[in-house]
Amino acid sequence: MKTLLTVLLSLALGASLLQAAAFEKDAKFRTTKIHISSDKPVGTGSNIFVLDIKKDGKAPIGAKVNVKAFMPAMPGMPAMESKTDAKDLGNGKYEIKLNIAMGGTWQVHIFITPTQGKRSRVKTSINF
Ligand SMILES: [Cu+2]
Question: Which portions of the chain are predicted below pLDDT 70?
């Protein structure tokens, strides 16, 4: 009985660990809120993030989302930039695959183009 309980507990723990995001950040501009998450810690190379977008508390159905990450020029290093179009997962969730060339602070601009109305931009940063 005790063994079974241990097995069930470790299964539950394993499942909750799998669900926990390794990276999470919230970004906001006016009435647009974005929850950014990734299953894996942010690292050099290709990173996959899920953006959970709400505008005025609602998912922006049908909106196009694209993302620009950049690092300004630094002494001995040119400016770096990475752009990507998000994949619409439905219900306000979007997936992006972002290439990050090096560690440091990256400025991230998220552009949301709704089916009607003005495009909005939400600024945040990713640091690793
Ligand atoms: Cu740099």
Answer: 1-2, 7-19
